[in-house]
Amino acid sequence: MKKLLLSFSIFLLFAFGTIKAQVGINILQPDSNAILDLFSDEKGLLLPRLTTTQMTSMQNPTNGLVIYNTEDSLIYYYNNECWLKAYQKNCQECEFISSVNQGFATIDRTLNDTAYFEIDITKLNGTDSIATAVLASLPQGMSVTVENPIIDSVGTVIVKVYANIWAPPGTYPLIIQSVCGQNVYFQGVTVEVEPCILVNIAAPLQDVDLQTDFSLPGVGTPVCVVLDIAQNVEISATSTNDYAMSWGSLDPNSHVGLRNKGYIYAKGGNGANLTNLISNPSFAPPGEVGGDALELTCRTTFDLQGGVYSGGGGGGSVGGVVATPSLPIVGTLVILEAGVTGGGGASGGLAGNSPGSSGTVIGPSLLDLGTDATVGPTSIPGVGGILSYSTSFSAGPATVTPFVSLNGGDGGDFGQPGTSGAGSIGANVNVSVSIPIIGNITLLNQTFSYTLPISQGGAPGIAIKTNNVPTQDLVVPNFLIKGPVQP
To answer: What tens digit of pLDDT does each residue of 326-367 get?
Structure first.
């Protein structure tokens, strides 16, 4: 009986549309603003169910007509111009679909510093372009860039998330937001930045091999290493053949971040030595080359707040002898020998040395050694020896007046060559004999003068030898780097 009354009420509603009436189904008092008020706590209203083809093929649909689309599971209504989804306002409203290729990416800072996300976008409706941006709160050392952010119809947006070696490790969420008109599409992704190995040097060290001395993995296992050298801590070399610091046998795909607040400095070259001047009558050796400070064997990022200094070159030494040709009565005279050595280069370069007098010289053996350089990051280079001499003396029938002016080369400061050693030596030799009846006869009155070859100062060492590995934030020239940076 109840169903019969309901059917009859609906019939009256449609049969007499001009009659103002309200119908309530399962409700005794319909809402005063509703012509039909339905109530149920267990059933719903079932709209006509059509496919897209069926919906669009409908002839002259009435403005406000409502259906349920079985293909996309949405309610559509007709606005007298086009079919619209329930949330759309007009036929020109932008609509699009968007999908991201992955939701999670990792940055290890050895093989990769950047995570990539691809967002494929297809516009379904409307004339507005689709703009994509990224919402994120990232720490210092991380950044986001968006490539191809504007899509007009179909395209791919590339989101790049970069983390440098100083970025703190952790997991960072990002929201990729695509906007077209008033429609917004959000997609969440996550980037994980893996931790680096931390190496802290807080006390002075010498000849550091990072891989060996700190038991880091070698070739075959790439690692990310953050190396902190504390304020004013000194890393030095014991000889010009040793680097003050090298990455050693780290895998070539490793990545080292050097944050240097101290000093990495090489040993200075020694001043040139003198050998036996009788066997080397015109001797002008160069100063020793300074040592190298830092060797890279894998990719390196720099944060230089302290110095990297190559060793200064040693000063040149110079010396020689004055000798006469074979003379009557007296034969050959080795009149004098004189020499000076070069000063040591910064840091710790030693002055050149000498074997001393040969013991076969009739006149003086004149030697002056340079000085050693001091040791440390504020090293003062050594200076070359200096000789200036002119005093007559007698040797049998000969009167000899020598003249000597020699300057040994100074040692070079950090990153600088040693200076050259140069000079001249000579003597005036007067040999007279007294012959009975005849009187005094001068056998020789001759000046012998020699300008000695210039002895070059030693070249400076290398401040940073890169071995052609990639470097980041290495600014050259830089007052904190003393000496050449060499590939």
So the answer is: 765 556 777 788 889 999 999 999 999 887 666 677 778 888
**Whole-angstrom Cα distance, residue 298 to residue 248?**
9
Between CA 349 and CA 388 the distance in angstroms is 25
User: CA-CA distance, 412 to 24, in Å (whole number)?
Assistant: 105
Pairing, β 318-323 against β 282-283? antiparallel
The count of other CB atoms within 10 Å of the CB of residue 2 is 6
Confidence band of 277 (pLDDT split at 50, 70, 90): low
Dist CA 346 CA 311 (whole Å) = 6
Are 341 and 323 in contact by the 8 Å Cβ rule? The answer is: no
pTM: 0.79
Average pLDDT of the residues of the chain: 89
Q: Retrieve residue 233's tokens.
A: 């801590």
> What secondary structure letter does DSSP report for 476?
S
Residue 475: is it exposed, middle or buried by C-beta count within 10 angstroms (0-12/13-18/19+)?
exposed
CB 52 within 8 A of CB 74: no
Closest alpha carbon to 457 in 416, 404, 486, 423: 416
Tell which residue, 297, 296, 300, 311, has the closest CA to residue 263.
311
Q: Which residues contact 477 (CB under 8 A, 6 or more apart)?
A: none
Which residue is listed with tokens 């200094």?
Answer: 309
Instruction: Report which residue type is found at 465.
Output: K
- Residue (of 304, 280, 278) closest to 293 by Cα position: 304
Is the Cβ–Cβ distance between 319 and 238 less than 8 Å? no
Strands (E), 154-306: 154-163, 170-180, 183-193, 197-201, 205-206, 208-209, 224-229, 234-236, 245-246, 255-260, 263-265, 282-283, 294-295, 299-304
Structure tokens at 236: 């030095």
pLDDT, tens digit, 9 for 90 and up, residues 201-217: 999 999 999 999 999 99
Residue-level length of the chain: 487
In the three-class reduction of DSSP (H, G, I as helix; E, B as strand; rest coil), residue 40 is classed as coil
- Classify residue 415 as left (phi > 0), alpha (psi -120 to 50) or beta: left
Work out the burial of residue 298: count CB atoms within 10 Å of its CB; fewer than 13 is exposed, 13-18 middle, 19 or more buried: buried
Q: Which two tokens stand for residue 94?
A: 């932008």
Say whether 196 sits in a helix, a strand or coil. Answer: coil
DSSP 13: H
Residue 323, classed as helix, strand or coil, is: strand
